[in-house]
Amino acid sequence: MNFAAELSRHVSRVETGLNLHLPAADTRPARLHAAMRYAVEGGGKRLRPVLTLAAAELFGVTDDAALPAAVAIECLHTYSLVHDDLPCMDDDDLRRGRATTHRAFDEATALLAGDALLTHAFALLATAYTDRPALAHALIAELAEAAGSRRLIGGQMEDLQAEQKSDATADELEFIHLNKTAAMIEAALVMGGLIGGANEDALGSLRLAGRDLGLTFQIVDDILDATADTATLGKTAGKDAKAGKTTYVKLHGLAAAREFAAAHTHRAVAALESLPGDTAFLVALTRELVARGK
Ligand code: GRG
């Protein structure tokens, strides 16, 4: 397996899918649709949709059946980034290497573009899988739970609360990251499995792998915030320390944060290797994520 070639095959399918499944930029009102496309087309890593496509492939899905779900999860993720960057949240100027959506457009347009991306994600799931209503239902339920008040939004809420006091506990930090970061990564893998008709055991393994992959991803994100520069990251570096924010690095130190990342990677790989099919790409992707923080 050539990891770089496989990654680029998946990413290029995602880019094609995004272009196909998002409303054209000149759809009325053009400013809103241009802002939606601006946010999505900013060149993210496409981690979550790639996970959906790769997980579906494990179960023999080689056609484009998983593409609408992959696009839906990237739309949802992008909405969360657009809203996270707003002045009432993180107040950031830079995302995906260029001006944040509210800086490139304006605050109200960015808010609405985020709302529209969130809504579009569910519209896509509802309309793309009409020939398999039970699957459509399962995908919508999975994404809604991962993105809802107990998970993504709940994690964001506790993150905002933790920022106010800047001395969050390890337990609070875990809640934040399990929900703000790992929930969507978990859902990405599980949605791929659902499209491939995975059984309960396999869905459980995908969920476990997503949980540990998500935690690895977040710990590495904390390490990079503390060690990399803005140009490398494509977003403002050193923000966490400047804000006095509690991170794995602040709570446990750099060396221990790297050890945590390695331990979660190990667990994610074990969960992936228990799955049927050729897991080489997903295992390599997991290892690649932890290597980013070295
Ligand atoms: C506003 C409901 C709501 C949630 C916001 C995504 C998010 C939650 C906040 C962004 C800040 C942050 C550090 C979140 C943790 C997850 C994370 C590292 C997101 C960035 O994902 P990447 O690195 O981004 O995959 P790209 O641009 O590559 O898609």
CATH class value: Mainly Alpha
Q: For the CA atoms, what is the radius of gyration?
A: 18 Å
Major sheet: order of its strands?
1-2
Q: What's the number of domains?
A: 1
Please describe the biggest sheet, giving its number of strands, its sense, and whether it closes into a barrel.
2 strands, antiparallel
Q: Spell out the CATH superfamily.
A: Farnesyl Diphosphate Synthase
What is the overall silhouette?
globular
The CATH topology is given as Farnesyl Diphosphate Synthase
Q: List SSEs in N-to-C order.
A: HHHHEEHHHHHHHHHHH
Structural class: mainly alpha
C-alpha termini separation = 23 Å
What does this structure look like?
The protein has a single domain, classed as Orthogonal Bundle (Farnesyl Diphosphate Synthase). The protein has 294 residues and is mainly alpha-helical. The protein has a two-stranded antiparallel sheet with strand order 1-2. It has 15 helices and two strands. The model has no long low-confidence stretch (mean pLDDT 94). Geranylgeranyl diphosphate (GRG) binds next to helix 4, helix 8 and helix 9. Geranylgeranyl diphosphate binds next to helix 4, helix 8 and helix 9.
Write the SSE topology.
Elements: H1 3-21, H2 30-40, H3 47-58, H4 67-85, E1 94-95, E2 98-99, H5 101-104, H6 107-128, H7 133-147, H8 152-165, H9 170-195, H10 200-227, H11 230-233, H12 239-242, H13 248-252, H14 254-273, H15 280-291
Antiparallel strand pairs: 1-2
Helix pairs in contact: 1-3, 1-4, 2-6, 3-4, 3-9, 4-6, 4-9, 6-7, 7-9, 8-9, 9-10, 10-14, 14-15
